[in-house]
Amino acid sequence: MYIIFPIDDSTNFLQVIADTLIDKFGAADIHVIRVDHSDEGYSESLKEIENIASDETILFMGHGQENCLYGGESKTFDKKPLIKNREIEIFAGKNVFLLACDSNAYLRSTFKFSKVTASIGFGGLPTDIGEVKKRLLEQGVNDAVIERFKLAITQLVVDGFSYILENNLPFHKLSDYFMLYLNKMISNVVLAGKEDFENRALADLLFKMKSEMVFI
């Protein structure tokens, strides 16, 4: 399994996913490709990605939008597209899990020519209050809710991949697991306090994550 993880302060909270999976399954089975915030870093990472064998599973953790997946970013280097729509064939023959905003639209727009074996993507994943739209702010999403949502994301990904790796299950089982796990999370949050506005806001974010997830 390979984890593609662009270097970007805004996604540092996802580091626990890579660290936990390496601790559980070993660095020999969990390979991490960090995309440095430089033109050279982008080029070197693409070469590493091109050399990934067919039938491997890839977890991308970073920023995205409908027409691309982004690479690393720093205060002195703005993020750029790492893999544009028409470049998705770099994932041909592989299972791809895109933990990135709008990766559902990215996968839908490329599935006819991507040659990807199977893929999972998501809609908006607000992990910073600046990314929260007015409608969500009005529903009670604040910094505390965002932090709880970020924790839920990391738990979900770690537990999901641990489940299929420990039981030697096919990639498509991740989709089933995520649906069940998200339903359980939503129920637990709601039952923990129906009148708590933060619980309601978190449940809404989790429901949105579930409803916008795609398996292609």
From TrEMBL:
The lineage of its organism: Bacteria, Pseudomonadati, Bacteroidota, Sphingobacteriia, Sphingobacteriales. This is CHAT domain-containing protein. It comes from the Bacteria.
